[in-house]
Amino acid sequence: MTAPRRRVSVRPVWLLVWAAALLLGAADAAHTVVKGDTLYSIARKYGTTVEELQRLNALTGTTIEIGQVLRLPGEGPLPTPAPATPAPAPAPAPAAPPLTAVPRLEGVSVTAPASVRMGDAFVLRLSGARAHEATVRFLSEVGENVRQPAERLSPLGAAGEYVVLGRVVLGKTTPVTYEVALGGQALRGSIPVTGLGQTVQHLNLPPAISRRLEDPGRKAEDAAVEAAYARRTPQVWTRPFAPAVKVKAQSSAFGQPRTYVAGGPVQYHYGTDYPAPVGTPVLAVNDGTVVVAGMYPVRGGLVVIDHGAGLTSLYFHQSRVNVKVGQQVTRGQKIGEVGSTGLSAGPHLHLEMRVRGEGTDPAGWMNRLWPR
Length: 372
Fold this sequence. Notes:
mainly beta, Immunoglobulin-like, globular, 4-stranded mixed β-sheet
């Protein structure tokens, strides 16, 4: 899906915004893993990151077990718990009837991509007389650092042709596995995933950056963005997606793996940076509803547009924001102007395209009609 693009040298000072994930606030208690916990949900609960939890607890992956005690930022070594009489186990909730795996579903045909790359958005197609009754889950998301893993999704479409948008997590090269369920039966399949082949950048940012992130408004900023990711509204776009700025050059490509401090974990760039003069118009990539608009400590002048179907576009570091929350916008409409606000040291637009809150390559959306 992703078109080749010219690689240019990166100006790391522009990338300070992504150090935020490493420098979140401290908590004051250990956490015991319970059913339903993931590293991502625990990180959100305590205002930290998956990577920080992995570092503090010497975890090499995202797998955790019920009853496991995790050290949290700001703690000393975990205390040894005193022996205790275990409480009686609660009565289990009635389980849903198991689905029967079948080689095909009556009334539904499923078409999946032959392969995808990490960071791709993709389409799972369902056709047939009962396609609208089916639901889809991406089972491989369980245990991954994603929002709402394996969420049960209803397909979008009409007249026997339906689709579900998929996403491939950055850093993931294991196959995407999916489940299409209908009437107590389930069809399962997998899609091979390839990497992007990018070398890791070592930015070695100084500790002083943490002081630039200790703004009391950052929690409200993150909460506003997370609320936008959680929206599930009908698809509203009907035309191909258009570039957000009339600039072709990129100062930082999507998916670039980096370490921010010496010996730190590898993280990824979830958008694309387009260098442009201050005041350059920023345009909506497609029709939608403005759900976030304003000036924020980290992302600066920020606009978030909900396009429906779990898709949001985000526009960082603007010098001016020309739209308001709740406003309906159309493709190509001016929503603001390029700037260098928030954690930025030079004028540019940072653009993100997120499917159910996870970053996908903006280049794969531009000048194309989705679903395709």
